[in-house]
Amino acid sequence: MSDHEVVANQKIILANQTSILDNQKTIVGHQQLILDNQKVILGNQSTIEKNQGALDEILANQKEILAAVKK
Fold first, then answer.
1. Gap between the Cα atoms of 3 and 11, Å rounded
2. What global pTM score does this model have?
């Protein structure tokens, strides 16, 4: 392999290393966004559970109303 080929390959390696570093920085940024989104999801789960409880109560009430109407 000639010196020219070695230098060309080294330039390619350096360029690839730069790309890898940029990608790693992007991944770290995305990990923070993912963590933030997970926190939001966990916060929303409590509200969802409360809403589900309310919907269950509404359904029970509707069944009672329907039963009363049928009488």
1. 12
2. 0.55
